[in-house]
């Protein structure tokens, strides 16, 4: 019924008229709602919000009840949409679009999640395995979202891998490089290696096979290059279980627990299986991660990384080793409790190692403390 009206009165003596405008005021109604958005760090987020009402409503944005302040990255556009360029992990939050006029106001909430992580990685691998030097091998990897967006998919190829080592390295591909931890899909508030350290860290890894072989690795992550690719170097040394080139190697799904042991310090461990021609072979590993303490700490005392759908393939003609792995990271099952072998240090809070060897009856003879555990040893001439 709103519009311009005219009243006309007339008789034989003449005519008179009056005009008026009828305006019907109405409270705001949001016609275009913002939708839950998940983007990669560095990308642009656009949260759309439009409303109708009379008089036309104004649109303002807030973040958890506090007004959004425009700056060089954050802008409320003339159509009411909120634009965030070069999105950062800290932009992850719940945002509110508020439409208001003289008749009232209406609010709608929307979560924005900014993820972790470079889309490419490159680096070098040097050292020796089973006393075989392999010069410099080169790693190139790409990181994408899985189809269901539940994990990140890391696909990588390592070149210049000698034929004498290729089959043995097939079971090591998932831990040969820290790319999977650095770029894992972040579930909830959990942080991957990139978010936590800006991809600048050192990782020392030791792999132990049930058959007695031990392999040590040092990973140095140097951040991102000018093209946004993760740059890292890997040094390996030691021995692994030798496998025939024709053996069918299947790496099982596994989990890794990351424990905050101090400022800028993590300890991680895992036990896994790989199958050789259908026969399961166990092996275990642990590693320590150090990074600049100013980067802070994980939001949980313990985070668990899930690795699944691992495939490996060695091409002896090209001397290349290719692998694919799906990775995600979430808070641990007991995310705010220290696991066995660690005690809570409330100063952090951190999980500090418990020295089991301080207890006299831990071992009958020699006790050697390790992170999260201990080892008993016997005198020369005896075995445990």
How would you describe this protein?
- The chain is mostly beta strands.
- It has three domains: 27-115, Immunoglobulins (Immunoglobulin-like); 120-343, Green fluorescent protein (Green Fluorescent Protein, Beta Barrel); 354-383, no CATH class.
- 5% of the residues lie in helices and 56% in strands.
- It is built from four helices and 29 strands.
- It has helices at 166-169, 173-176, 179-183, 193-197; strands spanning 3-11, 14-22, 26-32, 37-40, 45-47, 50-54, 58-63, 66-67, 74-76, 82-84, 93-101, 104-115, 120-129, 132-145, 152-159, 185-186, 200-209, 214-224, 230-238, 249-251, 254-262, 265-276, 279-290, 302-315, 320-331, 342-345, 350-353, 366-370, 373-377.
- It has an eleven-stranded mixed barrel with strand order 13-14-15-25-24-21-22-23-17-18-19. Strands 4-12-11-7-8 form a five-stranded mixed beta sheet, with no helix packed on it.
- The longest helix is centred in the middle third of the chain and has 5 residues, at 179-183.
- The radius of gyration is 30 Å and the shape is elongated.
- The mean pLDDT is 88.
Question: TL;DR?
Answer:
This protein is mainly β.
List keywords for this structure.
eleven-stranded mixed beta barrel, 3 domains, 4 helices, 29 strands, Immunoglobulin-like, Green Fluorescent Protein, single chain, elongated, five-stranded mixed beta sheet, 5% helix, 384 residues, mainly beta
Total domain modules: 3
The largest sheet, given as strand count, sense and whether it forms a barrel, is: 11 strands, mixed, barrel
**CATH classification, class level of the largest domain:** Mainly Beta
Give the structural class.
Answer: mainly beta
